């Protein structure tokens, strides 16, 4: 989450009857009439443009007709065509210009388009290509190419939808087309049906993404990432609002552009709230990962990690661990997050300490017969108000969001423990948390 | 504020939401801009022959905005307005010291951004006028003959015709002809005017009159 900004691996497909799909799928699609094509492809591209993907449409009708069909449901099509986010080609000239290109070159073309889209900041590449009359003239080469595409785009942020004119396809060619694509789309009344594989794949991708994100982030990184992820769309909302206001106040008012900026405001506000929901999901997702855990092991790991971080500075970190510490039920990653956060806090609290050694101690003890107790003790300036430090967005530092201790407390609370802070008698403060011991029968 | 005549604002931000929004904001204020997603795209963009300014996100995926500023270093680049997701004091100081016009924290105030863009374009316009003046002077200087180019520093150093002529080993009359020709070609109204031009062109002045 820190160095690589995660981008959702799922996207709305847009075709009526099909929900979200993962990137990297290659679908074939059989149409009977022009209306079939428009009904499927206009919402397909509307969804793609709405998700800020770069789109390529190779259409059997003229580019102008295709653009006009899109403009019926989508505002700002001209602007998207102007900046190249949406490209429309008519199938005849497209196939004439790619004639003689071998299959590798054709596949490379799409991969390059995807790279171009990603460097320009788009979420991915979405295309729909009409096979035109190719499947009559050059069927074998076409199938060869389609198979190569399926293999090449599997791990890429590309969606490809290939449209075949059902009237020109024989039964055997339909089967072959379905075989060389990963999925097939066919019309059932108003909606379209896609094979069920897609849904399973998308669920699997989402779970993997969540697990990955949780494993990577420490509390501090997570808070910074949340702040960044919320701040960006918020900047979008505010700036669009200012632009919208200006378009409306112009003489005469520019309603088209005002509408566009209003739509962007909605889009950006939604993406901010998706971040918030994502964060909730992240914490929900990880709670059941509690296992019997010896906190001494976690403390040693964090100790090693933090010693590297302070090496070269005047800060020392010591541990004082109870060798007979009973095990607790806890999520290992979350315990690391809590400890790293408390240790970093302590180190930062000692930044102003000059007249005594900057020493931080981490201790583990039994607390009665039902709890273990972990203490992180610093020689800093001491906390002024022991309760307010746990409030969200409370911070005494120039950087940081003031979320670290609040998240720590919520993690410890979710483990049926308690986190608090005490002023030390002479200098600094001690953060303590308790966690219940695993009953003997479980151990 | 009225929109200045010819101008171009570059917006470089990897977040499409932010760069689109700024593009719209500038458009609604009558300002022409191009929105780019990376430093590489900006570098590849042809340098416009008109006043320009650059709104640059500090955290770009391909290169840190501050590093880009450093890379452009001495070469001419339009005034920069930095945008950052979080107000980081040391990096703002570094950017401003290296010549950035300002450092805005997202989300930013629209009036503030527009004010800065207008200030940046005005600054660049002024620089372009100065540059154009200098280019004209350089062209005039190139039109001088080698002998006239020898005469010029002597004259602007305040040497008498007699002294200058002696220095070059030519007659005073010949020197006067060269001198008049220098004045005409440089389009100088007076000796003071010629001295000012020589200053702009960094022509060294001789410090002693007794050469």
Overview of the structural elements:
- The complex is a heterodimer of chains A (443) and B (211).
- Chain A is of the alpha/beta class.
- Chain A has three domains: 10-205, P-loop containing nucleotide triphosphate hydrolases (Rossmann fold); 218-287; 291-436, Histidine kinase-like ATPase, C-terminal domain (Heat Shock Protein 90, 2-Layer Sandwich).
- Helices cover 48% and strands 21% of the residues of chain A.
- Chain A is built from 14 helices and 16 strands.
- Chain A has helices at residues 34-50, 63-71, 77-82, 91-98, 103-119, 134-137, 139-153, 171-180, 197-216, 219-249, 255-286, 295-310, 332-349, 404-414; strands at residues 10-12, 20-22, 25-31, 54-59, 86-90, 125-130, 158-165, 183-188, 191-194, 291-293, 315-320, 328-330, 358-367, 371-377, 418-423, 429-436.
- In chain A, the strands form four sheets. A seven-stranded mixed β-sheet of chain A has the order 5-4-6-7-3-8-9, sandwiched between helices. A five-stranded mixed β-sheet of chain A has the order 11-13-14-16-15. In chain A, strands 1-2 form a two-stranded antiparallel sheet.
- In chain A, α7 (139-153) runs parallel beside α8, α10 packs antiparallel against α11 (255-286) and α12 crosses α13 (332-349).
- With 211 residues, chain B is an alpha/beta fold.
- Chain B has two domains: 8-137, Response regulator (Rossmann fold); 143-200, Orthogonal Bundle (Arc Repressor Mutant, subunit A).
- In chain B, strands 2-1-3-4-5 form a five-stranded parallel β-sheet, sandwiched between helices.
- In chain B, α6 packs across α9.
- Chain B is elongated and about 75 Å long.
- Chain B starts with 7 loop residues before the first strand and ends in an 11-residue tail after the last helix.
- The relative contact order of chain B is 0.10.
- The model of chain B has no long low-confidence stretch (mean pLDDT 86).
- Chain A binds chain B through residues 52, 83, 119-122, 224, 227-228, 231-240, 242-244, 246-247, 250, 254, 257, 260-261, 264, 267-268, 271, 398-399, and chain B through 14-22, 24-25, 27-29, 35, 37-38, 40-41, 62, 85-86, 88-89, 106-108, 110.
């Amino acid at each position: 989450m820190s160095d690589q900004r995660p981008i959702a691996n799922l996207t709305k497909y847009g075709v009526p009857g099909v929900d979200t799909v993962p990137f990297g799928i290659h679908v074939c699609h059989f149409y009977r009439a022009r209306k079939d094509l428009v009904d499927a492809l206009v919402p397909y591209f509307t969804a793609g443009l709405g998700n800020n993907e770069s789109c390529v449409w190779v259409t059997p009708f003229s580019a102008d007709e295709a653009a006009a069909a899109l403009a019926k449901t989508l505002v700002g099509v001209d602007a998207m065509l102007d900046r190249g986010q949406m490209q429309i080609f008519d199938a005849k000239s497209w196939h004439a210009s790619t004639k003689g290109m071998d299959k590798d070159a054709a596949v490379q073309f799409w991969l390059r388009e995807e790279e171009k889209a990603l460097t320009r900041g788009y979420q991915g590449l979405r295309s729909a290509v009409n096979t035109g009359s190719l499947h009559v003239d050059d069927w074998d080469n076409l199938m060869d190419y389609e198979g190569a595409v399926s293999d090449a785009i599997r791990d890429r942020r590309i969606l490809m939808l290939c449209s075949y004119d059902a009237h020109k396809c024989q039964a055997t060619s339909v089967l072959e087309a379905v075989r060389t694509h990963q999925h097939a789309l066919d019309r059932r009344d108003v909606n379209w049906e896609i094979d069920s594989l897609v849904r399973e794949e998308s669920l699997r991708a989402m779970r993997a993404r969540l697990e990955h994100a949780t494993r990577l982030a420490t509390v501090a990184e997570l808070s910074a990432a949340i702040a960044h992820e919320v701040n960006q769309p918020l900047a979008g909302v505010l700036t669009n609002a200012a632009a919208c206001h200006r378009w409306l106040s112009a003489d005469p008012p520019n309603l088209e552009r005002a509408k566009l900026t209003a739509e962007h405001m909605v889009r950006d506000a939604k993406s901010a709230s998706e971040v918030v929901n994502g964060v909730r999901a992240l914490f929900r997702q990880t709670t059941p990962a509690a296992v019997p855990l010896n906190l001494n092991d976690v403390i040693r790991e964090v100790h090693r990690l933090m010693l590297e971080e302070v090496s070269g500075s005047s800060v020392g970190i010591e541990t004082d661990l109870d060798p007979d510490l009973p095990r607790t039920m806890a999520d290992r990653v979350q315990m690391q997050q809590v400890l790293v956060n408390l240790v970093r806090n302590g180190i930062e609290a000692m930044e102003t300490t000059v007249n005594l050694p900057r020493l931080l101690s981490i201790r583990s003890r039994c607390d009665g017969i039902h709890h273990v107790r972990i203490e992180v003790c610093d020689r800093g300036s001491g906390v002024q108000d022991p309760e307010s430090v746990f409030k969200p967005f409370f911070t005494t530092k120039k950087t940081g969001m003031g979320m670290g201790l609040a998240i720590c407390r919520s993690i410890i609370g979710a483990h049926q423990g308690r986190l608090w802070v005490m002023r030390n008698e002479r200098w600094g403060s001690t953060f303590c948390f308790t966690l219940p011991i695993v009953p003997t029968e479980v151990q | 504020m009225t929109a200045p005549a010819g101008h171009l604002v570059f917006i470089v931000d990897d977040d499409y939401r932010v760069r689109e929004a700024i593009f719209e904001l500038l458009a609604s204020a009558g300002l022409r801009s191009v929105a780019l997603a990376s430093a590489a795209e900006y570098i590849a963009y042809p340098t416009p022959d008109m006043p320009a300014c650059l709104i640059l996100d500090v955290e770009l995926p391909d290169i840190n905005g501050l590093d880009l500023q450093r890379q452009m270093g001495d070469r001419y680049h339009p005034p920069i307005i930095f945008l950052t997701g979080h107000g980081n004091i040391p990096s703002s100081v570094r950017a401003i010291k290296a010549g950035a016009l300002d450092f805005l924290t997202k989300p930013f105030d629209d009036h503030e951004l527009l004010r800065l863009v207008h200030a940046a374009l005005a600054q660049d316009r002024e620089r372009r006028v100065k540059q154009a003046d200098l280019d004209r002077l350089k062209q005039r200087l190139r039109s001088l003959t080698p002998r006239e180019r020898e005469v010029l520093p002597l004259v602007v150093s305040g040497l008498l015709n007699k002294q200058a002529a002696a220095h070059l080993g030519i007659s005073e009359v010949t020197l006067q002809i060269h001198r008049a020709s220098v004045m005409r070609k440089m389009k100088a109204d007076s000796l003071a005017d010629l001295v000012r031009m020589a200053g702009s062109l960094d022509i060294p002045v001789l410090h002693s009159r007794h050469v």
